[in-house]
Task: structure prediction
Amino acid sequence: ILNVEQSPQSLHVQEGDSTNFTCSFPSSNFYALHWYRWETAKSPEALFVMTLNGDEKKKGRISATLNTKEGYSYLYIKGSQPEDSATYLCAPNAGNNRKLIWGLGTSLGVNP
Amino acid sequence: EAQVTQNPRYLITVTGKKLTVTCSQNMNHEYMSWYRQDPGLGLRQIYYSMNVEVTDKGDVPEGYKVSRKEKRNFPLILESPSPNQTSLYFCASSPSGENTEAFFGQGTRLTVV
Result:
């Protein structure tokens, strides 16, 4: 079983703060890593799909980096806004069966 | 508008009464899948389909059936629902397999009493 760990489990920040979360996964047989944003009462929405070691992707104030050799990815949010409040899921595609394995997510609350 | 549509959004049913949750996508995606989400657990895949008439078991297929007769539709069938199938269900589609971004439906909250 592939273990995916996301940390922290939850955090609260003030509007305007920058923050980051971590997704850790075993580095063997890596194919891709997905980040999704999941707002309460809605469905997950894709942020990034990353495949190459050293990849950096950016969408507005949100960016992500990938280190496949050591098995981690960081998600950064610059200048957090209340609308960034959501659960951020990571899902690596790795291991012998080439399936996405979903983490439990980091729940972010941004206080105005 | 590109979307994945699931129906119904909410359903309360009784043990043993067959039900179907529909899923349709309008993006001509090849890959579709069903997930369930339970408290304290990550999304778990029930079944997936690589293309028309090609389906395969995910991580938790017991008690479920699917079919993919057309590219756009991927219904989830519970022949004899049981209370342990009470969950939040998501259908998702992606252009070509799990290394492309997935588009999720709105979710179906199922309660089996």
